[in-house]
């Protein structure tokens, strides 16, 4: 194409010179918004700070010096490495996974309320896990698999119910809220029918809890999440292209149906994997992507800020849950629900005002 | 499509005014196309050739299937039967990004993500040229800047899209499609939300792009604008092509009556000499009959 700059142009209404836009960092072929980079550094720093607090905190406090000596030095401590480090790592990784799952579904539905915990994917995964515990032997492998199957079944049901007359994000969210309520009832029913010991174990876990999580619980979910996140990184660019609506996504070269299916699989996979280990931890997936989006000032619902915000939120919530009524450790889901509930109310009132 | 330097020369030679005797080059075709929108059959066994390098306007009454036809061209709608071909190959057989490097499309009401800025939006037009991870290729920046200049939005580059006026926003979308650098541009009623000044500016921009070798296909509401700017007009009614050709050759009172069910008088546009449709409603008395041709 010839240079278009040389031609005389019909005079257009001139806008006032804008203030400088967002700055960028360039590294070879990689572009990054400066604000996102700064935000990433800040969130990582906060996460590390919270992690240090988490490693020190316990029935008896350790000093940071002791913690560093165990982590990087010659000292050994079962409490710090086997208990606290496992728990802190789980909170960070699961928080990130939930944040990412939320971002995926909010992108797919183009709705800030379209997150897996609101549309019933957590609850469906939990139904699967409950089934594994009450009917099957309840090994961690069975639980993980049953969670994924439960989550996918709910996702498929919502999709089928809402896809009549074309894909609509809002309809999907509304139907998902209904499905969520039904699955909650099913879960209560399963627990009521279960034997007493099983029921007590299941209920303690029903709010979503990291109590008693150890490394032996974590290697499988971490591997699964690593694979899912690697897949996601490869498709993230295409996912963001869908935020322009189906028409532009398709005509700029996105294979929409395949992409949507893959995104749902990754999102459900992340949610179900976390649920299988820690139960349905609510509201991290709802709040983290939107908080991350606002902090980053980025278009759409970006994934990296969602992941980091999710990690910080879940770890922070878990620390509060442990400290609030110490030495009794609350399930982290109680705290995340309290924080997230306030956020959901705010979101709803704003949506209502806008409508 | 920068790889075919000769295509443009062929294209210009193929436009109706340039060589009326040579048949125009055709790359985009519809063959026996039957389209269905939900339960409603929109067109049956429709055949159409889009002349390469020309400005084609698709006109017709509301709901006649002109937008549906455009959507079938860019694979947004799978035909019930028949096919849309580009360079002799069914558009459905192209890999998604390969087709997106040939045919650019601007829908009637595209969605912008919240908090997106103009430059960020225009950059997304580069998607079909980018690798899996969306890393920037050397030509991307140049294509984006050139597209913004061509659409006259370079001064808005750092503004938030939601803060722009309707006319500015439409030019931003045009810039995005231009950044895609496709030889073909398909636009679905691009002027519909614009005031009259911006309508003409946009149409002038599209003609200019045509002059620079792009093929433009636009669904237009205003028949007079179509007559003035298009090299090739396709008149559609109830999913059938009623007439196609150079506007001056095909537009007469009978056609307007047939397509729009509107009695009218056709006079030469005093500025361009192209046909101008002046509706005559019941009770109108023709004060100034048009000069007889010749």
Automatic annotation (TrEMBL), chain B:
Provide an example Pfam family for this protein. Answer: ABC_tran
**GO MF annotations, alphabetized:** ATP binding; ATP hydrolysis activity
Q: Provide the ABC transporter domain boundaries.
A: 28-263
Name the source's superkingdom.
Answer: Bacteria
SUPFAM superfamilies on file: P-loop containing nucleoside triphosphate hydrolases
Q: Would the keyword Transport turn up in this protein's UniProt record?
A: yes
Q: Name one GO biological process term.
A: iron ion transport
Region called Disordered, residue ranges: 1-24
The record's InterPro entries line, in alphabetical order, gives: AAA+_ATPase, ABC_transporter-like_ATP-bd, ABC_transporter-like_CS, P-loop_NTPase, Siderophore_ABC-ATPase
- PROSITE patterns in UniProt: ABC_TRANSPORTER_1, ABC_TRANSPORTER_2
Statement: the UniProt record of this protein carries the keyword Membrane: yes
Q: Which UniProt keywords apply?
A: ATP-binding, Cell membrane, Ion transport, Iron, Iron transport, Membrane, Nucleotide-binding, Transport
Q: Which compartments does it reside in?
A: Cell membrane
**Residue spans with biased composition (Basic and acidic residues)?**
1-11
Per its UniProt record, what PANTHER family does this chain match? FE(3+) DICITRATE TRANSPORT ATP-BINDING PROTEIN FECE-RELATED (PTHR42771:SF12), IRON(3+)-HYDROXAMATE IMPORT ATP-BINDING PROTEIN FHUC (PTHR42771)
The name this protein carries in UniProt is ATP-binding cassette domain-containing protein
Q: What is the lineage of its organism?
A: Bacteria, Bacillati, Actinomycetota, Actinomycetes, Kitasatosporales
